[in-house]
């Protein structure tokens, strides 16, 4: 399975998605990054742009490949780029909530959901990305 996700930043904060509480999906009820599975003919960037448009109505401008993480079951392409619009201009089509959080907040292992009015944990994939967060200053 190939997946592409984006760390989108705006004013020193990062856009995260609260995944649905649906049994059987990856990391239900946890904060993750926007993006998703690639179609067989898509490049990672093409798939990510499609997913961002489907999930948020967002036409991302700059997406820079950051790193690739492979396991025997998944190939994860991680991109970084600016969030070109205010969060209020996004139209959440997938997931329970979205928010902007600082790296310091995310490093605590959870984030607060304005919609649910409670803190939820981070998905393993977001935890993996945070382990490399020291590299983000070079990319932003």
Feature tags:
140 residues, alpha+beta, 35% strand
Distance between the first and last residues' Cα: 28 Å
- The best one-word shape is globular
The unreliable regions are none
Question: Radius of gyration, rounded?
Answer: 14 Å
Descriptive report:
This protein is globular. Strands 1, 2, 3, 4, 5, 6 and 7 form a 7-stranded mixed β-sheet that branches. Strands 8-9 form a two-stranded antiparallel sheet. The protein has 4 helices and 9 strands; from the N terminus they run E-E-E-E-H-E-E-E-H-E-E-H-H. Helices cover 21% and strands 35% of the residues.
List the helices and strands and how they pair.
Elements: E1 2-10, E2 13-18, E3 31-32, E4 34-37, H1 44-56, E5 64-70, E6 75-82, E7 97-101, H2 103-107, E8 110-113, E9 118-121, H3 124-130, H4 136-139
Could you provide a short overview of the structure?
The protein has four helices and nine strands. The N and C termini lie far apart (28 Å).
